[in-house]
């Protein structure tokens, strides 16, 4: 075996080893590395109680209500599988609205509802000019 | 070692080894540099002008969507730069290609600059769109890691220079360059594997979820920044070649003085 071939074999083995080990690590991370819980995840597994988590999904159409105090709002987050009622007190980002993606930071309550301390608007991968708004958009990545 | 087979070797891979000779590389790189540089600048300027004035705003993000004409090329070159470092490192380790490590170290600085620009422009866009400058989601975190991996590569190259003289080492940095490439698929697929705040893949060669009316200037800035990047890499490769030549000459002279004294 020539030295060059030896080096090539070693390099190929090293690349395969690095690739294989990281694939294993990533598959183990799959659930832990998620940025947020989808309502369907919570329904499938247990409620992640007692710690700060994020809940992500679509704001269900017609579910957004602002309370009389002016700073509290209630809405429902859905991913097409399950629905979670959310209460939030504070200032929402400009892009937060019904039928749009949202990531809420906060805690689950034992009754399955969610109390948010911060809201992030989740934008989807679609970009279009205003006159095309009629061809409605959906955050497909969030609705299974 | 079988010398007759080694002599036959350059004939099998002529394109790579034709460039192994620095003089021949320089003869091509010297006239190519200004062509790439000015073509890149022209494309960036045209794409930037078109992106600021000739396209409609997004229906939701309004004018802040226009940052994509910078953000996407910087992300592409931040990752493309590391692909270049990984391929060069592999060529250096396996084939001992004399220009490979020079190419890898020439890519590192523009690569880390574009990775930083990608993080900065993304952050500026994230504030009005998501409502946050930074979140530890899969895409953002893996891109930040790539930025740090670039810094590590630059530090390793410098450390090897100090130990073995300018351009003398390179093996440790090359191994690191190959290992670091594992971040590239993680960045690429982070938005597929995990729930992320960052939106999914929106640009493909055949299908994009960005409306053509908004998308088209991106092809100009994307190709423009790529040519610009290539020109910077060629400039830096020529600088590194010139510097290693000068340092070798200095070493020879110092040796000569020692011997005659």
Explain what this protein looks like in three dimensions.
The complex is a heterodimer of chains A (144) and B (261). By secondary structure, chain A is of the alpha+beta class. Chain A has two domains: 1-33; 39-142, OB fold (Dihydrolipoamide Acetyltransferase, E2P), CATH 2.40.50.140. Chain A contains two helices and six strands. Chain B has one domain (35-52, 65-129, 136-197, 215-253). Chain B has helices at 3-12, 14-18, 22-53, 68-95, 100-130, 138-164, 171-180, 183-193, 212-260. Chain B starts with a helix and ends with a helix. Mean pLDDT of chain B is 88; it is low at 1-14.
Record keyword descriptors for this entry.
heterodimer, A: 144 residues, alpha+beta, OB fold (Dihydrolipoamide Acetyltransferase, E2P), 2 domains, 5-stranded mixed beta barrel, 2 helices, elongated, B: 261 residues, mainly alpha, 78% helix
> Which strand order do you get reading across the main beta sheet of chain A?
1-3-4-6-5
CATH domain class name of the largest domain in chain A: Mainly Beta
SSE order of chain B, as H and E?
HHHHHHHHH
Number of strands of chain A: 6
Tell me the number of helical segments of chain A per DSSP (H or I, 4 or more residues long). Answer: 2
Tell me the Rg of chain B in angstroms. 22 Å
Q: What's the assembly state of these chains?
A: heterodimer
Q: Unreliable segments of chain B (pLDDT under 50, ≥5 consecutive)?
A: 1-14
User: Whole-number average pLDDT of chain B?
Assistant: 88
Name the pair of protein chains with the most residues at their interface, and give those residue counts: A-B, 43 and 46 residues
Distance between the termini of chain B: 41 Å
Number of helices of chain B: 9
Radius of gyration of chain A: 22 Å
Note the run of SSEs of chain A as H and E: HHEEEEEE
Which band does the percent of strand residues of chain A land in?
Answer: 25-35%
The major pleated sheet of chain B works out as: none
Instruction: Fill in the CATH topology of the largest domain in chain A.
Output: OB fold (Dihydrolipoamide Acetyltransferase, E2P)
């Amino acid at each position: 075996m020539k030295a060059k071939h030896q080096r090539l074999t070693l390099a190929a083995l090293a690349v395969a080893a690095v690739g294989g080990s990281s694939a294993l690590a990533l598959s183990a991370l799959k659930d832990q590395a998620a940025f947020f819980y989808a309502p369907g995840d919570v329904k499938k597994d247990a409620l992640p109680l007692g710690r700060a988590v994020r809940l992500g999904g679509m704001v269900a159409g017609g579910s957004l209500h602002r309370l009389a105090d002016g700073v509290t709002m209630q809405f429902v987050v859905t991913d097409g599988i399950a629905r979670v009622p959310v209460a939030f007190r504070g200032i929402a980002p400009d892009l937060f609205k019904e039928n749009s993606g949202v990531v809420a930071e906060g805690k689950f309550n034992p009754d399955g509802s969610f109390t948010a301390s911060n809201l992030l608007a989740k934008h989807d991968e679609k970009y279009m000019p205003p006159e095309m708004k009629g061809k409605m958009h959906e955050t497909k990545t969030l609705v299974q | 070692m079988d010398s007759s087979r080694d002599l036959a070797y350059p004939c099998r891979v002529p394109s790579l080894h034709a460039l192994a000779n620095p003089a021949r590389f320089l003869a091509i790189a010297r006239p190519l540099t200004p062509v790439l540089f000015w073509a890149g600048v022209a494309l960036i300027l045209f794409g930037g002008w078109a992106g600021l004035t000739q396209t409609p705003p997004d229906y939701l993000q309004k004018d802040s969507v226009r940052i994509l004409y910078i953000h996407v090329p910087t992300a592409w070159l931040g990752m493309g730069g590391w692909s270049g470092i990984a391929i060069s490192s592999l060529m250096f380790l396996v084939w001992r290609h004399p220009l490979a490590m020079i190419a890898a170290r020439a890519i590192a600085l523009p690569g880390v600059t574009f990775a930083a620009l990608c993080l900065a422009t993304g952050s500026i866009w994230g504030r009005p769109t998501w409502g946050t400058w930074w979140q530890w989601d899969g895409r953002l975190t893996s891109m930040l890691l790539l930025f740090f991996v670039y810094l590590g590569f630059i530090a390793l190259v410098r450390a090897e220079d100090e130990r073995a003289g300018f351009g003398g080492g390179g093996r440790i940095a090359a191994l690191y360059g190959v290992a670091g490439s594992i971040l590239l698929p993680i960045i690429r697929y982070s938005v597929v594997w995990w729930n992320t705040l960052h939106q999914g893949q929106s640009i493909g060669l055949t299908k994009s979820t960005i409306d053509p009316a908004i998308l088209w200037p991106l092809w100009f800035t994307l190709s423009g920044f790529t040519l610009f990047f290539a020109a910077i890499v060629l400039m830096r490769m020529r600088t590194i070649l010139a510097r290693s030549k000068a340092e070798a000459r200095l070493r020879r002279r110092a040796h000569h003085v020692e011997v005659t004294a």
